[in-house]
TrEMBL record:
Pfam families assigned: Fer2 (PF00111), Fer2_2 (PF01799)
Highest taxon, organism lineage: Bacteria
Keywords (A to Z) from UniProt: 2Fe-2S, Iron, Iron-sulfur, Metal-binding, Oxidoreductase
All copies of domain 2Fe-2S ferredoxin-type, residue ranges: 3-79
CDD domains: fer2
MF terms in GO: 2 iron, 2 sulfur cluster binding; metal ion binding; oxidoreductase activity, acting on the aldehyde or oxo group of donors
UniProt pathway: Alkaloid degradation; nicotine degradation
Protein name in UniProt: (2Fe-2S)-binding protein
Lineage, highest ranks first: Bacteria, Bacillati, Actinomycetota, Actinomycetes, Actinopolysporales
InterPro entries the UniProt entry points to: 2Fe-2S-bd, 2Fe-2S-bd_dom_sf, 2Fe-2S_ferredoxin-like_sf, 2Fe-2S_ferredoxin-type, 2Fe2S_fd_BS, Aldehyde_Oxdr_Iron-Sulfur, Beta-grasp_dom_sf
Length: 167
């Protein structure tokens, strides 16, 4: 059974007809040609497909497209302002926060979402003082980014990039 939906992807309204079982990831990649979110594990375990959905980070391989009709989807492609990279993207470049680059779009989207969560005062499992804004030390960043895997092991540079972007 197909359903007509509309998504605002990286600032552009897109309409499409999808099978009701189609994931947001497959709708983006296969139907709309938006290829920055990657299909890694297809089980929500690696984070390569992470996008911002109405401003919150989600693993798009576990999200049904029909459940988000009229939603705002931001991928790594949509974070930049014209030719200027988003501050997180710029920090990834400056700190060499990638090697093969496969996980990078998901890492970047997750980092942007994570920084918004910190601004909103959301604690993580390692946040010590729940009364104050979380301190973005290495342990805090690693915990908050734990859903995004990098097979190349660029974690040290990813953490450095996120710390810089947070400042």
């Amino acid at each position: 059974m197909d359903a007509e939906i509309a998504l605002r992807v990286d600032g552009q309204r897109r309409t499409l007809s999808v099978d009701t079982r189609t994931t947001l990831l497959d709708a983006l990649r296969e139907r709309l040609g938006v290829i920055s979110p990657k299909k890694g594990c297809d089980h929500g375990q690696c984070g390569a497909c992470t996008v911002l959905l109405d401003g919150r980070r989600v693993t798009s391989c576990l999200t049904l497209a029909v459940a988000h009709d009229e939603a705002e989807v931001t991928t790594a492609e949509g974070l930049a302002e014209g030719d200027r990279p988003h501050p997180v993207q710029q920090a990834f470049l400056e700190h060499d926060g990638f090697q093969c680059g496969y996980c990078t779009p998901g890492q970047v989207c997750s980092a942007v979402g994570m920084l918004d969560e910190v601004k909103a005062g959301w604690p993580s499992h390692v946040t010590e003082n729940l009364e104050e804004e979380p301190d973005l030390d290495e342990e805090e960043i690693r915990e908050r980014m734990s859903g995004n895997l990098c097979r190349c092991g660029a974690y040290t540079n990813i953490v450095s990039a996120i710390r810089e972007a947070a400042e």
